[in-house]
Design goal:
Layout lengths: L3 E4 L2 E4 L4 E7 L8 E7 L5 E8 L4 E3 L7 E5 L5 E6 L8 E9 L3 E4 L3 E6 L1
């Protein structure tokens, strides 16, 4: 079974930073793109950012000003560096992978809590 393993969530004060990691299993390590969604309590899951195997990045809205997505040389791990975190960034962050053979795979989610 192909899977994604996330880490790096936690509790941080407003203005702080966190770095999330997402490592794909062997067969997902060549996914055409990997990225992150997030879901706040009581809200819909929304896109955050994604990166293609060629290193092209895309961000939702103005998150590019504070968030940076990167990938280790098209390898199995994607990172999301989050700076200047605000309480509105609180939620569960889900990694995903889009693979030509396996379609979309989701991680289990990692909790990010930003206190004011």
């Amino acid at each position: 079974q192909e899977q994604l393993v996330e880490s790096g969530g936690g509790l941080v004060q407003a203005g702080g930073s966190l770095r999330l990691s997402c490592t794909a299993s062997r067969n997902l390590s060549t996914s055409k793109s990997m990225g992150w969604f997030r879901q706040a309590p009581g809200a819909e899951r929304e896109p955050v950012a994604f990166i293609t195997i060629d290193g092209v990045t895309h961000y939702a809205g103005s998150l590019k000003d504070r968030f940076t997505i990167s990938r280790d040389n098209a390898g199995p791990t994607v990172y999301l560096q989050m700076n200047s975190l605000q309480p509105d960034d609180t939620g569960t962050y889900y990694c995903y992978s889009d693979h030509l053979r396996f379609g979309r795979t989701w991680g289990q989610g990692t909790q990010v809590t930003v206190s004011s």
